Amino acid sequence: MKRIALTVCLLLAVTAVAVGGEPAPAPTAAPISEQPLHFRIEVGVRPGYVVSGWLDESKGTGEGYDLVLLDLDGDGTFETKQVAPTQKNYQTQKDVPKPTITIDREGAKWALDLYSLGQRRPTVKGDSLATYVKWTVRTEELYAYFINGRVTLYADAAKAKAAKPIRLGPPFTFDTGSSQRGPDALLRVGLKDGNGCTMRLARDNAGKGPYRYIKVQLHSGEKQFLDTNATYG
To answer: How far apart are CA 143 and CA 134, in angstroms?
Structure first.
């Protein structure tokens, strides 16, 4: 049986440009909630920039996570407080907090959406909570959207510090698979990050529309069987 190699190229790039931060509100010295959720996020085009923080509740316990405290420079001081937007709970039809962590880094805005926490009151089992997430990155030129990932948040700050941080950004990996339909072989290609999030959409913010295609080549030795664009998402 001939061996067939698969080469997949993504025609997509993020340009890194430094930007200044906005003045931050005064931080809260300690969690208000009886059940804060701590995290560490590694964000940016290049690895190495880690932000720590926790999700909090402005009214104590049971009202939903509507505050995010961030330590952006790793000095142990939480200098940034973000207020979560609201969304409508599809079951109760009431507005509830939508916990979202946003970080400006390298000319891009990175946003981690902990959407499942806004739909129901989570139960922390032991010292951690696994929750579904989606995240986006936005620059002047590009908007990309990743879905169906899971991350772990911790009730204890020390546990969060010891755990591997949540990674937003490259490196990405390709998840490929194939199936046979009659005489034709179907190829599936997905772009995933380290948390298992799959790229759902990428578009050009300059108004040129979505990036809907990636380059796919199939070859065996010197012979090339396929050279085409494939859709993703």
So the answer is: 14
Regions of the chain short of the pLDDT cut 70: 1-29, 118-125, 185, 187-189, 206-216, 225, 229-233
pLDDT of res. 154: 93
- As beta bridge partners, residue 202 has 144
Q: 32: phi > 0 → left, psi -120 to 50 → alpha, else beta; which?
A: alpha
| Long-range Cβ pairs for the range 206-214 (8 Å, 24+) | 206/140, 206/141, 211/11, 211/12, 213/11, 214/8, 214/9, 214/10, 214/11, 214/189
Domain parsing of the chain, residue ranges: 5-14+173-231, 37-168
Parallel, antiparallel, or unpaired for β 213-220 and 223-231? antiparallel
Query: Closest Cα to residue 121, out of 67, 50, 64, 181?
Result: 64
Give dist(CA 68, CA 33) in Å, integer: 12
Catalogue the E-assigned strands of the chain.
5-9, 37-43, 50-56, 67-71, 80-83, 86-88, 95-97, 100-105, 108-113, 128-138, 142-154, 166-168, 173-181, 184-192, 198-204, 209-210, 213-220, 223-231
Question: How is residue 119 written in tokens?
Answer: 């739909």
CA atoms of 71 and 98, how far apart (whole Å): 20
pTM for the whole structure: 0.73
CA dist., res. 39 & res. 21, Å (int): 21
Distance CA 198, CA 173 (A): 10
